Each structure stands twice: as C-alpha cells, then as structure tokens.
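Eukaryotic translation initiation factor 3 subunit F
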Amino acid sequence: MKCYRKILRIPWCDRVTSEKVLEKVNIQNCQLMNNIRKLKLTYFGHVKLHNTLEKLCMEGMVEGKRGRGRPKRRWSEDVPEWLKSPATRAGATAQDRRLFRSLVWKATSSPDPP
C-alpha cells in the first residue's frame, strides 16, 4: 500500500482508505488481503485448538474502564465476519481441523468484498 500511495502521490496525512487507493490503481482482488486473512484465520484455529495462555488471553476480559472514544477494531472481530458464523461456533469448528481448513480456504479464495 505504501508503494501504491507513493506512485499515486498521496501524502500520508491525507485520509484516503486502502480501498480507494486500490480502486485508483485498478486492482480488484488484492492477494495481500487474502494472505493476511488466511494467516489470521489459521492462527485463530491454532489458538482455539489448544488450551494455552493465548487462548485464555483471547477469550478473557480485562477489568476496569476502557478509554474514551470508539473502541479499536480487534482482529478477533474479523474472524466471525470472514467465516460468516459466530465466534463460539468458529471456535468449536476449529476443533475439527479438516472442516476448519476448508472454511479457511473458502474464506480466502473468494475475492474481497467491494
């Protein structure tokens, strides 16, 4: 994205989304986004498969107040959106490796939504 922005001479201070930059470059299916999606989903499946500290951290809640403003988007919120199922069902599906791999393949082989 940095290279595309440099080619199009879009300064870093301009608030231009990555989708708009890809439209200007005329790229419909971004392989980079599919790779990121695949890596996130496989890591999610790996964490959900084993009882580890990472799983405890991902499922746990932090006590106290959060800061002002809109909460930042977490990658664990992307997983249910990409798999088109709730996070609890996605976690249960991760227990069956073959099924989860097929779901990851379906989620990463389709083109990015507009």
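thats it. The first helix runs from residue 2 to 7. Residues 69 and 107 are 31 Å apart (CA to CA). bye
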